[in-house]
Design goal:
Number of helices: 9
Radius of gyration: 17 Å
Structural class: mainly alpha
Shape: globular
Oligomer: single chain
Length: 204
């Protein structure tokens, strides 16, 4: 990783992904089994259902960090297509991954797509997306169009702000007093706008 202006340039996409996953794991912490949590048993942020779906059959309390990281990389980066976003904007990608772990990857993707649609000025700047919760070529093309229109850093800042707004509305709609303080403190504004200057070195 090297400095470039006020941002950081990650030497590779994999290096950026590992840093993002480490940040998510640090927030999630270790084993919990809170009756108020609909996800049930959780360790390193991985719920029991996700762990079983990934093939882990052991006790959740003993889920190794290495296995959790592999599950993160597959379920919350590669499969939902968030790696393509990280390549364009590590900051927006970090927001997607963290929101995906906390609220589901499809919901996080919809927040991203809805943000892009609002920022398109009703389709004047680029085509409006179908909000289907799937980050594919059209979603990436829309974000790149936003970058060309607003500039790389400003496109990221605008997107993060709108995603945070939707995430906050989602939390308030759940009516869950047990977790609202922690969610608000740790999940909203958790990707500093200063990170919008970060980038990933293009492969040679």
């Amino acid at each position: 990783m090297s400095s470039q202006g006020q941002g950081k340039t990650w030497a590779s996409l994999s290096a950026a992904v590992l840093a993002i996953l480490a940040g998510v794991a640090a927030v999630e912490g270790g084993y919990v089994n809170n009756p108020a949590d609909p996800g049930g048993e959780t360790n390193h942020g991985v719920t029991v259902n996700v762990a079983r779906g990934a093939g882990y059959t052991g006790p959740m309390r003993e889920l190794p960090k290495e296995v959790a990281q592999e599950i993160y990389a597959q379920n919350y980066v590669g499969r939902p297509g968030f790696d393509s976003v990280i390549a364009s904007s590590p900051a927006v990608g970090a927001k997607l991954v963290d929101a995906g772990v906390n609220a589901g990857t499809a919901r996080a993707a919809r927040w991203f797509q809805q943000s892009l649609n609002h920022l398109s000025r009703g389709g004047a700047d680029y085509p409006v997306l179908a909000v289907d919760g799937q980050v594919g070529r059209q979603t990436i093309a829309a974000y790149q169009a936003l970058e060309r229109k607003r500039g790389r850093v400003k496109a990221c800042e605008l997107t993060l702000k709108l995603m945070d707004a939707q995430q906050g509305t989602h939390y308030m709609s759940l009516g869950n007093p047990t977790f609202i303080v922690g969610w608000t403190d740790n999940r909203l504004g958790n990707v500093p706008l200063a990170r919008c200057a970060d980038s990933v070195k293009a492969p040679t």
